[in-house]
Amino acid sequence: SIAILLYLAQKFKTPDHWYPSDLQKRARVDEYLSWQHINIRGKGSKLFLTKVLVPLLTGQPLPPEKLEGVTEELNVVLKQFEEMFLKDKPFIAGSEISLADLVALVELMQPVCAGYDLFEERPKLAAWRRRVEEAVGKPLFQEAHEGILNIKNL
């Protein structure tokens, strides 16, 4: 949960960029973490559930028109994410990665693992993803997403 992440960042005195002490940067992180619950998480999880879990549990594929509607909802919040949070910065809170970037990318991986490459036609989003992966380390990123990357093997 977000509360646990913030607690851990403060308790273990992680490097400042994760949860900045600068109030403006911290407010930016907090703003994203509050916004993402019903936006990125809500719409990304809905696409994942609709495209992967519901067909897996029911044995029936979803009607294409229902999937289109769910995909369009996600596209709307992705546009908002790019315009409101990334703008012209490398990361959400500025020039360094933060918990906001980490949470955002983890949530965006659900639709990707469901077969929707939301980075494909969004160069700004794709460049941000590369920066986040590089900051975390590609091997660690792959390890953290191993389970969900293999979801289609079910």
UniProtKB/TrEMBL annotation:
Gene Ontology CC entries for this record: cytoplasm
Domain GST C-terminal: 22-154
CDD domains per the UniProt record, alphabetical: GST_C_Theta
Keyword Transferase: yes
The enzyme's E.C. designation: 2.5.1.18
Annotated localization: Cytoplasm
Superkingdom: Eukaryota
PROSITE patterns in the record: GST_CTER
Pfam families the UniProt entry points to: GST_C
InterPro entries: Glutathione-S-Trfase_C-like (IPR010987), Glutathione-S-Trfase_C_sf (IPR036282), GST_C (IPR004046), GST_C_Theta (IPR040077), GST_Theta (IPR051369)
The keyword Transmembrane helix is assigned to this record: no
GO biological process: glutathione metabolic process
Subunit structure: Homodimer.
Record-given protein name: glutathione transferase
Organism for this UniProt entry: Aegotheles bennettii
